[in-house]
Amino acid sequence: MPRAIAVHGGAGNIPESLRPEHNEGIRLAREAGRRVLLEGGSALDAVIAAVIVLEDLPAFNAGYGAVLNAEGYIELDAGLMDGSTLDIGAVAAVQGIRNPILLCRYVLTGPHILFAKEDAARLAAAAGIEQVDPRSLITPRRLEQWLAGQRSLRVDSGAPSSPLSAQGETHPPADTVGAVALDAAGNLAAATSTGGINGKAPGRIGDSPLPGGGFYADNLVGACSTTGWGESLARTLTARRAIEGLERGLTPAQAARAAIDLLGQRIAGGEGGLILLDRHGRFGAAFNSQRMTHAWWSEVDGEGVVA
Ligand code: ASP
Question: Fewer CB within 10 Å, N or C, the chain?
Answer without folding.
Answer: N
